[in-house]
Design brief:
alpha/beta; Rossmann fold; Arc Repressor Mutant, subunit A; 3 domains; three-stranded antiparallel sheet; 15% strand; globular
Length: 349
């Protein structure tokens, strides 16, 4: 085996133990994966069994085009690494470059009212217009609306799954899954092994990742006993902020959000309320130039905030020669400009 392959198999083994707190503590002290496995005190037969499973998992990830991002990787989300029990490894489908984006977590009920749907669309569209990405749990309801609105608005989004990364769940979100991956506007991530089914206990556990990826969790419609409230609880435990959209006092879907506000969560009635916390001056709403070709529009949408030229190339899916032609054309038309460090951005005005 090659060194990188052995290294990833070690991290897969560690992830399969589920002993994330100990793994983080030992990793933070500078121990190697081999040392961490030893310090966990697992019986020899157990280690051999886990290693065999990890090797199979590694082969399946290659076959399915799944990216593996261990806790030690520079690609591992910085904020997630800070929580007490970060996954030892993340399975990723889609563009991992978005893991380094500027995000807010948006969660809510699986049975939203029209009010909740409209509030989600209004707030998310404003956030993505100003370069804020959306993290959510890929569930039916508010989660799905948030993901879809992010993609629709030319933004980016991360779906955190409560299943193996290869499992389509809920099945009604099959097209949303495809849109996130094929649009190159985000990614799906999971801590669960390939093929893991949607067990009930997976989802509360998954929620700590949703809150752990961001500094702010926004709750839009939630009953008192709901997954969204569990996510808010994790956010508070992690030292993160919780925001909530108020609702009717006679609506079960608003009991959770109204309670959060009573307990100190920031009351949110617009996307601009959230942008204040990011110290972002909201942009005046602009309309995409109508004369853009399909390829030009791809680049324009990616440049909802300044980005490295290489990242734009990777996300666009264009070949290098075609990419350079499109960039030059947009520059000559005065629509985009270059900054030092090979950074491209939309031209003001």
């Amino acid at each position: 085996m090659l060194g990188e392959e052995i290294f990833l198999i070690d991290w897969l083994l560690l992830n399969l133990t589920g002993r994330y707190r100990q793994i983080k503590e030992l990793f933070s002290r500078g121990y190697s994966t081999e040392d961490i496995i030893s310090f966990l005190g697992l019986e020899k037969e157990r280690v051999l069994s886990l290693r065999k499973r990890a090797e199979e998992e590694y082969k399946r990830s290659l076959d399915l085009g799944i990216q593996l991002i261990p806790l030690s990787s520079d690609d591992y989300p910085v904020l997630l690494r800070e929580i007490t029990d970060p996954p030892a490894l993340l399975y990723v489908l889609g563009e991992k470059v978005w893991l380094k984006g500027n995000f807010i977590s948006v969660v809510g009920t699986r049975k939203p009212t029209r009010y909740g749907i409209n509030a989600t669309r209004m707030i998310v569209s404003r956030l993505v217009e100003n370069g804020i990405g959306i993290v959510s749990g890929f569930a039916y309801g508010i989660d799905a609306v948030a993901h879809m609105e992010a993609i629709k608005g030319g933004g980016y989004t991360i779906g955190v799954l409560g299943t193996g990364i290869d499992i389509v769940y809920p099945k009604v979100n099959r097209s949303l899954r495809r849109d996130i991956i094929e649009s190159k506007r985000g990614c799906l991530i999971s801590e669960f092994p390939i093929g893991d089914s949607p067990e009930p206990w997976h989802f509360p556990r998954r929620n700590r990742i949703i809150s752990g990826l961001t500094q702010i969790t926004l709750v839009i419609e939630a009953s008192l006993k709901s997954g969204a409230m569990i996510t808010a609880g994790y956010a508070l435990e992690q030292g993160r902020e919780v925001f909530a959209v108020p609702g009717n006092i006679d609506s079960e879907n608003s009991q959770g959000t109204n309670q959060l506000i009573k307990e100190g969560a920031k009351l949110i009635t617009s996307g601009d309320d959230v942008l204040e916390e990011f110290n972002i001056i909201p942009k005046v709403t602009t309309i995409r130039p109508p004369e853009l070709t399909e390829e030009e529009a791809v680049i324009w949408n990616i440049l909802n905030e300044p980005r490295l030229e290489d990242d734009i190339l990777n996300i666009s899916g264009l070949d290098v020669s075609r990419f350079n032609i499109i960039i030059t054309r947009l520059e000559l038309r005065g629509l985009i400009e270059r900054s030092p460090g090979r950074i491209l951005k939309r031209r003001d005005g």
